[in-house]
Fold this sequence. Notes:
By secondary structure, the chain is mainly α.
Amino acid sequence: MFIEEFWAKEYNKNIIAWEIN
């Protein structure tokens, strides 16, 4: 599913950004 892949990428980006900060 495109939506699931999109949200998985967004979620990972947010987690990584959160961990860096």
